[in-house]
Amino acid sequence: MDIPFFKPFIDYFEFAVGYISHLTLWRLVEMFWFFLLLDLPRYILPDFFILYNEWFHSNPMLNKPMPDHELPFISVIVPARNEEETIGLTINSLLESNFPANKMEIIVVDDGSEDRTFRIAQAYSARGNVRVFKKSIRGGKASCLVYGLKAAKGAFIMSVDSDSTFDRDALRNILKPFRNPKVGAVSGNVKVRNRAHNLLTRLQYCEYMTGISLGRRWLAYVNMLTIVSGAFGCFRRSVLEASGAWDPGIGDDSNVTLKTRKLGFRVGFAPDAIVMTNAPTTLKGLFKQRRRWNRSFIRNRLRKHKSIMNPLQFNIINLFAVIIPFFYRVVLLFTFFIYIIYTLLLDIKFYPIIFFLTWVLYSCSTLFSLTVSISFSERRREEWKILWYVPLMPFYRLYIRFARLYAYIQEIFRLQYEEPFYPDKVWSQAPRW
Length: 433
Fold this sequence. Notes:
Layout lengths: L6 H15 L3 H32 L17 E7 L6 H9 L8 E8 L5 H6 L7 E6 L5 H11 L4 E5 L3 E3 L3 H4 L9 E10 L6 H23 L10 E5 H7 L8 H11 L3 E12 L5 H22 L11 H31 L4 H25 L4 H4 L9 H20 L11 H6 L4
Parallel strand pairs: 1-2, 1-4, 2-3, 6-8
Antiparallel strand pairs: 4-7, 5-8, 6-7
């Protein structure tokens, strides 16, 4: 191309860089205050804490696998609806784990499937430790889990998704935190199985590595974890029975976790209990998923279980476990969009360079967090490749922010309250929060 075509851009860049290089520290903070004062501490400080804790305060006993004679009998509940393509993979993955077969049962609960899910699962019942039940009328995931709990024999109950597969030692590893009798539930470490499908699933892999593999590790350290993943979670049976187990509605995983915390138990995280699950492959599918997830944040933590924030009734740490995520996820979300408008009004001719430098700052932050996460990963040799996608993560996170904003507005004003994730019959019988 002809060089003069680029001259206006080169001149602008030189002018902008020259202007910014002469700014005072206060003016720089004024331009990038949202990242420097709010997002940077939010993302980077926990990463340093994790590094310090793993290097200097790691407890070898918690990382030591239980010998076979100490392993308890476990029940793995697999709710399924129209999962003929994945249910066999999930059952096979569980059967191929290194957990003793005589100390494990797999309970598949078919939620009125209209495909071959039940027949495929039923074929595994000859294995002896696989039981399959069929509910003729669809009741939703929570009803399947409760159904499975009633049929279960184990002292520990694991709930898993029917489109997930597990590392061979995942079932053993998720039990490690239960060595602490104060732990009532433990979340597994969820990663994206179909990351090679397209660019969107690769970006979600990066997000899970920082948000789950690192984020939940940090929250478990400080006893502020308020969600046990629905894809792979484990509970003491006694805790589930005392809490009333799962309730119908969106966010059944966060709901049962909050009920566990109300009983005074800690919620742990097992970073080496790896489950691989399918992530949405389209922007529309991702938007719908995050809308449901974020609506449940408002509904469960701030409405249904708002009493957990009463320090006179429950441990004061529960107050912080709800208020701090509320500040980060809700208050800062609305503040972020105010910041965008603010920077436009600050001096619009510098907006392109501000946008560029903000992208650089967020990319560097993501690079650091991903590097820390991968350094602790059992798949680090293959996961270093995802660092190539770091420059795209700020744009991906911007899309997620819009999905979150839409979800919060819907939930605050109770718009489209009934999600199709559960059938109409369930919504008609469930209380509105």
